Amino acid sequence: MTSLLDLLRDPLFRSTVLTLWLLPCAIQDRRTRHVSNWLTVPLFIVAWPVALLTGHFALTFAVFVGVYVATKLEPRAGAADGKLMVGLAAVAPPALGIGVLMEAAVFVVLRLRGRQDEAIPGALFLCVGSLLNAVLLVAQRIIGPSQCL
Length: 149
Known about the structure:
Blueprint: H1 4-9, H2 11-32, H3 37-54, H4 57-73, H5 79-91, H6 93-112, H7 122-143
């Protein structure tokens, strides 16, 4: 019988739950460019014990510090995106990497096109990153670790 701790240690389970959690965040961010605290704060709080359980505490803390500094340097930076990023660092670091890379690419393209003030729905990219991470984990289980990336 699988225990809750076993499930929490399973990267596919964490990434799947994370994708489902981020979906309403992404929808709300896309529509309003705002994500409610009731969607972001629980993930931020849960991130810390999960980070200890998964061994991602140092990364989670580093992302927290980076997000904190970024919001101080750029007041328009999204606090909701920061809380979600801390959650991803704890729960599914590859999903964070994928989401941030996609968001950075869109940011660069928008800036090159002269669209300096356009807001980017960060939660959308984090959700897609989590979904892609889950797909890669499923592929890895089906094909086998030696055949995947």
